[in-house]
Design brief:
By secondary structure, the chain is of the alpha+beta class. The C terminus is likely disordered.
């Protein structure tokens, strides 16, 4: 019985060393390829690729002509936009407001740069592990995988969940001050990314008998490279999670290191 347990523990030791020396490096290399491919899709300078001059044009509108916006997206900034949207005056008559964004004051989409920064950090975490590096324990591998997963999750979230801003924060933002001509003081606009779409939103404050609220409208347009980036983020996360699940089999052995004699498995293992 004791000999069987020792043989099983020895087999587990060999499997552990094979996973650390072969499977993890192979898996990290696969994740690295996916993430570099993801970096190539970003319209910014990222990991040796520079697509910051990439230019795309979109028309964001709604059927009722409540708003319409012709956008030129260069890299991670809106470098030109022709904006028209309706607001309601106190007489309840809708009035069309016109403004524009020009090259000298672009509207930066910070979410794109944030996601790119997190992606680059994930790639660097893999680069820091030399191809010939010998891992010593499952905890060491789990720590590295945790760093990669954390960076990828933050990068993906940057694109999927835009940061919410209060209406007064929008009104006083640097981007709003760059609009020409200025729009009415009780209105604000916003551009942001949500999943694979570029969103254009308008907001108008209303004050009815002292009760302040706001009305909003929005239009959206799918951006092809965003969809590709999100798919690659997801694939990278899945591959990392698979590696983590595989190595977690050994994490129950807290003192289980390469070259050490593993403890005998308990009943049922």
């Amino acid at each position: 019985m004791v000999d069987c347990e020792r043989a099983e523990a020895l087999n587990l030791q060999h499997e552990f060393e094979w996973v650390l020396n072969q499977e993890i490096h192979k898996g990290l290399d696969q994740v690295h390829q996916i993430l570099v491919e993801c970096a190539r899709r970003f319209p910014v300078q990222l990991y040796g690729h520079d697509n910051s001059s990439k230019q795309e044009k979109f028309v964001l509108s709604v059927p009722s002509d409540q708003l319409k916006c012709l956008v030129t997206l260069t890299g991670d900034s809106i470098t030109h936009a022709d904006i028209n949207f309706k607001v309601t005056k106190q007489t309840n008559n809708p009035v069309m407001v016109h403004t524009a964004i020009h090259n000298d004051h672009p509207w930066k989409l910070q979410q794109v740069q944030d996601a790119a920064n997190h992606l680059q950090q994930a790639i660097y975490h893999i680069d820091d592990v030399g191809k010939n590096y010998k891992f010593k324990s499952s905890d060491e591998v789990l720590h590295i995988l945790g760093n990669i997963l954390g960076s990828l999750q933050r990068g993906r979230t940057s694109l999927i969940v835009p940061k919410k801003k209060a209406i007064d924060e929008l009104m006083n933002s640097r981007n709003m001050k760059a609009l020409s001509p200025n729009i009415p003081e009780d209105t604000a606009i916003s551009f942001y990314i949500q999943s694979h779409k570029l969103i254009f939103a308008t907001y108008q404050l209303t004050n009815i008998h002292g009760n302040i609220s706001y009305d909003s409208s929005h239009a959206e347009y799918p951006v092809p490279w965003l969809n590709e980036v999100l798919v690659l983020f997801t694939v990278g996360l899945q591959l990392c999670q698979q590696l983590k699940d595989k190595i977690c089999v050994f994490s129950q052995y807290k003192d289980f290191t390469v070259g050490s004699r593993p403890p005998s498995p308990g009943p049922g293992i």
